[in-house]
Amino acid sequence: MPGGRGVDPQSATPVYLQVAARIRERIVSGDLQPDRPIPSESAIEQEFEVARGTARKAIAVLREEGLVITVKGRGSYVTPAL
Amino acid sequence: MPGGRGVDPQSATPVYLQVAARIRERIVSGDLQPDRPIPSESAIEQEFEVARGTARKAIAVLREEGLVITVKGRGSYVTPAL
DNA sequence: TCAGATTTGTTCGTATGTATT
DNA sequence: CAATACATACGAACAAATCTG
């Protein structure tokens, strides 16, 4: 079985978009709250069994959507409510 | 000279494995003895002219092999003889 | 007590090379 | 060819534990 939890490498949808979608869900659902950190790149690597570059691309998508902000040496955080 | 003493970045063998192999030799040869510290990450950086991440990966290999133990704030030590 | 240096731990930033699709 | 994905490697910043004076 395919990796178990997580993403489907065979899907037409790129893995990094699948990962981004998973994390997006946690944000919009409130599972991940404003000003709180999202999983680190390395945590995403392990949870979804993807390479670091793929984890980074997923986060970049959410950043471009304005859902998260990223701080060097710290991590990425759900964008604070206004 | 190319990098002087040390590793070969052009080799098919990853640098971190080359560094691990060098330190492993010192352990099995008795150059580095049980319960004694191995070179710090920063010492490995300088000696082999590698980045810290590479030094850390080399140590991780030896740790997974059970050859060394690592203590935060202290360093890594050759695994004590039973 | 404490301030600074050392050392490992964790995180993101960037670049390169290879393989696959 | 371009996009995707993985592995490797260097750099930089922040954090925590330890040691030293």
Tell me, rounded to a whole number, the average pLDDT of chain A.
Answer: 94
The number of helical runs of chain A is 3
Strand percentage of chain A lies at 5-15%
User: What strand line-up does the widest sheet of chain A have?
Assistant: 1-2
**Major sheet of chain A:** 2 strands, antiparallel
Give the radius of gyration of chain A: 12 Å
- What's the total number of strands of chain A? 2
Uncertain spans of chain A, ≥5 residues at pLDDT below 50? none
Helix content of chain A: 40-55%
Oligomer: homodimer
Distance between the termini of chain A: 43 Å
Q: Which class best fits the helix and strand makeup of chain A?
A: mainly alpha
Shape of chain A: globular
Q: Can you write the helix and strand succession of chain A as a string? A: HHHEE
Secondary structure topology:
The structure is a homodimer.
Chain A: H1 15-28, H2 41-48, H3 52-64, E1 68-71, E2 75-78
Antiparallel strand pairs in A: 1-2
Helix pairs in contact in A: 1-3, 2-3
Chain A binds a DNA duplex (21 and 21 nucleotides) through helix 3.
Any descriptors?
homodimer; 82 residues; two-stranded antiparallel ribbon; 43% helix; DNA-binding
Verbal overview:
The structure is a homodimer of 82-residue chains. Chain A is mostly helical and 82 residues long. In chain A, 43% of the residues lie in helices and 10% in strands. Chain A has helices at 15-28, 41-48, 52-64; strands at 68-71, 75-78. In chain A, strands 1-2 form a two-stranded antiparallel sheet. In chain A, a hairpin with a 3-residue loop joins strand 1 (68-71) and strand 2 (75-78). In chain A, helix 1 (15-28) packs across helix 3 and helix 2 (41-48) crosses helix 3 (52-64). The longest helix of chain A has 14 residues, at 15-28. The relative contact order of chain A is 0.20. The chains hardly touch. The first copy, chain A, binds a DNA duplex (21 and 21 nucleotides) through helix 3.
